[in-house]
């Protein structure tokens, strides 16, 4: 599949891009190069190849799920306008 200069001009108009003739020609060359690469890739036999989420076999390194901060709830609630049984009391916003 290859594009024509008219295709590029139509897409440029839809995207509201003001391309000069030189830019249109350069864009046409670049897009046809990309489409040629896609055509090459579609010709490769991928039967039996499992899809990958990422081309590299990476693993997410996770930190240990451990408490690293001390509990300062009482300290923070001491300066709150209203608190009761460990909860902050706020004005009702939904009736």
Describe the overall structure.
The protein has 95 residues and is mainly α. It has a domain at 5-41: Histone, subunit A (Orthogonal Bundle), CATH 1.10.20. The chain is 40% helix and 4% strand. It has three helices and two strands; from the N terminus they run αααββ. The chain has helices at residues 5-14, 21-42, 73-78, and strands spanning 83-84, 87-88. It has a two-stranded antiparallel sheet with strand order 1-2. A hairpin with a 2-residue loop joins strand 1 (83-84) and strand 2 (87-88). It is elongated and about 70 Å long. The relative contact order is 0.08. The mean pLDDT is 91.
Short description:
The chain has 95 residues and is mainly α. 40% of the residues lie in helices and 4% in strands. It has helices at 5-14, 21-42, 73-78, and strands spanning 83-84, 87-88.
Largest sheet strand order:
1-2
Number of helices, counting only DSSP H or I runs of 4 residues or more: 3
Indicate the multimeric state: single chain
* Rg, alpha carbons: 30 Å
Sketch the major β-sheet. 2 strands, antiparallel
CATH class categorisation of the domain at 5-41: Mainly Alpha
Question: Helix amount, in percent?
Answer: 40-55%
Distance between the termini: 61 Å
Morphology call: elongated
Give unreliable regions as ranges.
Answer: none
Q: Strand tally, please?
A: 2
Proper CATH architecture of the domain at 5-41: Orthogonal Bundle
